[in-house]
Amino acid sequence: MADRDDFGATLTFDLSRPGRVGCTLPPLDVPEAPLPSGDLLRDDITLPELSQPDVVRYFTQLSQRNFSIDTGFYPLGSCSMKYNPRINEVAARLSGLADVHPMQSDETAQGALALMHGLQRLLAEITGMHDVSLAPDAGAHGELAGILIASAYHNSNGGPRRRVLVPDSAHGTNPATAAMAGFQVESIPSDTDGNLDFEALRAALDSNGDSVAALMLTLPSTLGLFEPRITQIADLLHDHGALLYGDGANMNAMLGRVKPGDLGFDVFHLNLHKTFSTPHGGGGPGAGPIAVTAALAPFLPAPHVRQDKSSARFSLETPEHSIGRLGLFHGNFGVLVRAYAYILSLGAEGLRGISEAAVLNANYVLTRLRDAYRLPYDRRCMHEVVISGSRQKANGVKTLDIAKRLIDYGFHPPTIYFPLIVDEAMMIEPTESETKETLDAFCDAMLVIAKEAEATPDLVREAPARAPLRRLDEATAARKPVLRWTR
Amino acid sequence: MAHPYIPLTQEDRKELLGSVGVTSVDELFAEIPAEHRDPVFDLPKALSEPELLSYLEELASRSTAGLPSFLGAGAYAHFIPSTVDAIISRGEYLTAYTPYQPEISQGTLQTTFEFQSLVCELTGMDIANAGMYDGASAMAEACLMACSVTGRERIVLLDTIHRNITETVRTYAGGRDIEVVLVPPSHASLTDTDACLAVQQPNFFGYIEDLGALSRAAHEAGALFVVSQDPVSLGLYKPPSAFDADIVVADGQPLGVPLSFGGPYVGLFACRAEYARQMPGRIVGRTKDLEGRTGYVLTLQTREQHIRRERATSNICTSTQLVALAFTIALSTLGKQGLRRMAELCYHKAHYAAGQIAALDGYELASNDEFFQEFVVRCPVSPADVNDALLGCGMIGGFDVSDRVERGLLLCFSELHTREQIDDLVKALGEIRG
Questions:
Q1: Do A393 and A330 belong together in one domain?
Q2: Do A477 and B286 touch (CB under 8 A)?
Q3: Is A56 within a domain?
Q4: Same domain as A335, residue A285
Q5: Engineered SS bond to B299: which of A21, A122, B209, B285, CB 3.0-4.6 Å?
Q6: Max Cα separation, chain A?
Q7: Domain housing A389
């Protein structure tokens, strides 16, 4: 770690000295043209002036102030913080992939299109769906596409429907997406076992049932639990002419074991940056492909890759009733390359090995922590386990404190305070990437912290002590926002 | 057989199963309905690392890359400083996620604050967010934000904006009762029901729009003025803030990001300070830790989906942070002098090329308007035929805009083109007969 006392106080703008340059550009080898007139020409711009070593050292020192999968265990629930294979990075940088222009003719981009078509087919097989769009750039982008498809489908099949149902355990993106697409959002409670309250779903459908466009369901749920009545839920929705939307953030639990299409999902989005190992990048880029049934395929976003049967050539097309375009070009191609390489490196057997290890690891963590922490639903879990810090809270130690104390033990905290329906929630997703030794070290730390919460609660409440910074004043940051460098 | 991405050994498995209290992993999947459990997956066999690499190399060789190219039209090949890939390849940046724990995420948070600051300086605007998916989704979100700021439900876009951007705006507006209309710059008159006037600078055809007049047209109707501007051009041209823009967006790809067949790129999003709480996306703010040291945190989060759910300003969650970092490093490396130099080189090369091509028999510039690095030429034959002929000469031509400009070909030039390459292009064009 950098040892300067107040590293954060100095930005590139502060390091800047007039006259320093970080790179050179070719000399002008054509005649100069008259520059734009004064009412258009920029006279000055404030940008850093740094030498190349300045740049490299500053950003390298900053990198050392980040926790990452490469530096430690990162059990952030619902995010599948698994190992990001380096071969995928090599693949995405191959010139024939990285240097292809998106507006090149299809004829000169056959390799890139073949890769996209190949990935469309692999993901269709993995999800058991009819077809796939690679256009969405993230999970929430895929949700938007999927819900717009549901909307377009209903508009052309019996008329508009105005309601979207969302379980109370859902990711925040689900209700936000439905609202963005113009729907009324209604929350469906969970029952005492952590499953969707089936009677509440039935009641919502029966009250003005033909007005429900879709239910957005995460499987396994954000509680890390498989919904045992999933096929009945799908049937009930379909009986009412509504669609079942699948949030696939937790697909790592099901890889190679079950196909969402077989369970009755109509649309299912995948997060390639979660399940399919593409790097999270500090918050993207991701990719959120959506898989759909045959009935919904004509509504897929543009562009979509098709292969001509006779010539075997690939081309970009706009599906017949497409909801339209979601972004500037064809989706996050560089991310797609990585996911494609990942699937090819695993095959069916390897994919199944992923979900097996992910689910086994999570259940092991559950087993080791169940006596020290409250388990809100006493069931086996899938790929992640949700525990509660409510017992520790009674002693004045909050889940936030436990999370910060984990930092002192060298671990990234789990997702906390989510799902919202569990008091003092901690959502732990170990993934398949970890050794038993790492799982044990993490569980040991959690057990020690549980003891500390009783014996030395201040130690936990004051954590972290061994991070680059102590706790930060977020309240002032929001009340008096400083959002940019100023001179 | 063991797989390199799955460390559990057979021995580990036995121990874990024993602790969990099951005899086989299958028991952990028992809640999956039996009739749907363990279907057949028709997938190719796993490839070893060397097999995978040679397969992908073969696939990559099926596309044309590495030839001199005069294609822009929304994605621009520029010099990428070597610092960029060296730093974004570091696992500490590459394999972190959204900085929910600021004490151990200062790398991501501080570089994002740098990004926001650079975007503000570049565009001249008060504040910027941590980035959107790309320039098109940034424009769509800007137009939706203009609707919530003004309480109006009609979006006016100039028809000289990249069609992929206007189509993205339509998709985003599609679920709600928001009308989207396209107008030519000459008829950009708005009414008091319009939320915004959105323009692209330089426009899709490469030409400079009259931002002053367009801004007045928007503001006279009480609408917001939204500008999407090429970031390299901002090294040379006055920023949109000089024309009273309310929201400025861009695709950040030209600075530090490979073409990569269209993505991942990064959307820049900046606006007036008064709209801070209506902005979509993540925002990083500066604060202090318990010991008074400067640090950075995600802030104004009550706008966001994980707090506000169906009342959030947008559903965006994961964006393109690593690409924002690439942009930040590229611009920090280019610096004040480098950006200006890059912009001037693009400008001079494009103007040299325009002069040479206009002098050819059968070719003419489609407009006398001012341009930056792209312009449209009218060809003697169809642009598709011109591009075919150029490909035969070992170069990728321009973008065929004959659906908008008769026999129009959109050509793009940058600091990467040598005079020799431009002269080769001119020579090849001259040999194409009508």
A1: no
A2: yes
A3: no
A4: yes
A5: B285
A6: 78
A7: 348-461
| Domain count for chain A | 2
State the nearest Cα–Cα gap between A454 and chain B, in angstroms: 24
Cα end-to-end distance, chain B, whole Å: 64
Q: Are strands B179-183 and B224-229 parallel, antiparallel or unpaired?
A: unpaired
Is residue A63 domain-resident?
no
Q: Average pLDDT, stretch B207-232? A: 98
Q: Tell me which residues of chain A, numbers 117 to 136, contact chain B at a CB-CB cutoff of 8 Å.
A: 122, 125-126, 128
Phi, psi at B368, each rounded to 5°:
-95, 5
Residues A171 and A227 in one domain: yes
Q: What is the pLDDT of residue A4?
A: 56
A-B contacts at Cβ under 8 angstroms: 678
Q: Are residues A354 and A250 in the same domain?
A: no
The two structure tokens encoding residue A347: 């095959």
pLDDT at A1: 41
Most B CBs within 10 Å, among A61, A94, A103, A127, to test the B interface: A103
Q: Do B294 and A9 touch (CB under 8 A)?
A: yes
B41, B89, B344: residue with CB nearest A256:
B41
Instruction: Identify from A62, A271, A300 which residue to disrupt to test chain B contact, counting B C-beta atoms within 10 A and taking the largest count.
Output: A62
Contact of A351 with chain B, judged by CB distance below 8 Å, is answered with yes
Q: Which of A95, A101, A116 to mutate to test the interface with B (most CBs of B within 10 A)?
A: A101
The DSSP symbol for B105 reads: B
Q: What mean pLDDT is predicted for residues A122-148?
A: 98
DSSP reduced 3-state for A196: strand
Does A370 share its domain with A327? no
Mean pLDDT to the nearest integer, A311-340 = 98
Nearest-CA distance B94 → chain A (Å): 4
Q: Kindly state whether residues A309 and A425 are assigned to the same domain.
A: no
ipTM of the prediction = 0.98
Taking the C-alpha atoms of residue B412 and residue B372, their distance in angstroms, rounded to an integer, is 9
Chain A positions touching B136 (Cβ under 8 A) are: 325, 327-328
Judged by CB atoms closer than 8 Å, whether chains meet at A263 and B33 is answered as yes
Report pLDDT for B175. Answer: 84
- Locate tokens 């090599």: which residue? A90
Query: What is the residue type of B382?
Result: S
The verdict on A164 and A196 lying in the same domain is: yes
Give me the pLDDT at residue B423, please.
98
Residue A205, domain CATH? 3.40.640.10
User: Which domains occur in chain B, in start order?
Assistant: 82-329 (3.40.640.10), 336-430 (3.90.1150.10)
A13-67 confidence digits (pLDDT tens): 999 999 999 999 999 999 999 999 999 999 999 999 999 999 999 999 999 999 9
d(CA A67, CA B346): 40
Q: Is B48 helix (H, G, I), strand (E, B) or coil?
A: coil
pLDDT digits (tens, 9 = 90+) for B117-165: 999 999 999 999 999 999 999 999 999 999 999 999 999 999 999 999 9
Neighbours of A239 (CB within 10 A): 10
For residue range B330-386, list pLDDT tens digits in order.
Answer: 999 999 999 999 999 999 999 999 999 999 999 999 999 999 999 999 999 999 999
pLDDT tens for residues A197-244? 999 999 999 988 689 999 999 999 999 999 999 999 999 999 999 999
What is the CATH classification number for the domain harbouring A369? 3.90.1150.10
Joined tokens for residue A263? 């369970």
Q: Does A193 share its domain with A123? A: yes
